[in-house]
Amino acid sequence: MPCARNCRCCASAGRCCWPAPGPGNRPCSPACWRRSTAGPTCWPTPCRRIPASPWSNAWRRRPARPAQTVSSPSAAAALRTPRRPWRCYWPKAASLGVRDDDGAKLLFSDIRLAARLVLIDPVANLGVPAALMCATGMNGLAHCIEGLYSRERSPLAETVALDAMARFAEALPAVHRRPGDAAARGRLLYAAHLSGRVLLNARTCLHHAICHAIGAVTGVGHGDANAVMLSHAVAFNAEAAAPALARAAAALGADAEAAALVPALRALQAAAGVPTRLRDIGVPAAALERIAAKTMRERGLHYNPRPVSGAHEVRAVLDAAF
């Protein structure tokens, strides 16, 4: 039976419609969608309840496609496929990592995990210790440097990396000096956001391979591992990636020479107050051999500009950082 014009279809009642709210009319539930047609009547339409969103009531009023419009089996299958959940992520640090109980760092990749909205709020970030922000910021800086010399990268990765590196060079010391400065934290968070964009267009290399193994074996935070290892991984790749390292040095405000990057990174470590030795972050000497062996199983080695011939080369890098 047809409904009155400008009726409402109520998700709570299923396949039905009610008159629009007014004197003597039965009110609809808050999760209803209003349906109007060009003709004098509107027909009952199946509605789907959508979780309330704090952003707009419009998100609660999205109807399912009417079944009568399906004209093929493939279209019917598409209607039965669940819509991607509406996810909002609110990062509180400049990077993050996941480690399971068995000491393995896991990577989950699926389009259904992708955020449809990311909120970067420097005021909410004020409760995060400056030491954690600066250490995780060094991880973001590492994304940029490896994005410049990775064997699999795009021109977009290089462009974004250079922009982000200049921002890290200013923001990291500023957050260390003024932990309560929301503007400085905002600049650091934006640089970290750009470094994430680099990873969309480049693969990580030896540096991140070592840091993954350090975290998996010892439980040390990913940011601290990055802060310590970055200059040593760069030194390992100095000859194989000299042009890229020269560009990175210039982005950090140093001379545009590959040899200038390691001193620039160590100066930035000091200015940001981050750790500089593995022993200072709780990595025992006895774990270095296991870390080196575990690094050799990391896929990032394939993208490193300088081939890694064996665990002994990784161990030499770890010894220098210890």
Estimate the helix proportion, in percent. 40-55%
Report the major sheet. 3 strands, antiparallel
- CATH class term of the largest domain: Mainly Alpha
The beta-strand count equals: 5
Q: Quick check: average pLDDT?
A: 79
**Alpha-carbon Rg, integer:** 27 Å
At the fourth level of CATH, the homologous superfamily of the largest domain is Dehydroquinate synthase-like - alpha domain
Number of structural units classed as domains: 2
In one word, what is the shape?
Answer: globular
Uncertain stretches of 5 or more adjacent residues: 1-6, 9-68
The CATH topology annotation of the largest domain reads as Dehydroquinate synthase-like, alpha domain
Q: What pattern of helices and strands is seen along the backbone?
A: EEEHEEHHHHHHHHH
Strand coverage percent? under 5%
Instruction: Give the class from helix and strand content and strand pairing.
Output: mainly alpha
Instruction: Just name the CATH architecture of the largest domain.
Output: Up-down Bundle
Total of helices: 10
Sheet with most strands: strand arrangement: 2-1-3
Oligomer: single chain
N- to C-terminal distance: 79 Å
